[in-house]
Amino acid sequence: MAFPAEVLKVLGRMGIKGVSRVRVRVNDGPDKGKVLTRNVVGPIREGDIIMVKETEMESVGALKGR
Questions:
Q1: Looking at residue 38, which CATH number applies to its domain?
Q2: Which of 5, 13, 32, 38 is most buried by a 10 A CB count?
Q3: What is the domain range of residue 15?
Q4: Counted domains in the chain
Q5: DSSP three-state, residue 51
């Protein structure tokens, strides 16, 4: 099941495939209110609502040069 999450901040872009690293707050489900870092493919901006499949784990890795 997927849960809605609001994009709080776009942290940066990675690679050439249009992957952005974003910080989101889960709006519903068992982890409501939790702030996570996720990788998102495609256009994204602050305030957008995305559906996250998993709310227990964060994305791993760091942006170079940040």
A1: 2.40.50.140
A2: 5
A3: 3-52
A4: 1
A5: strand
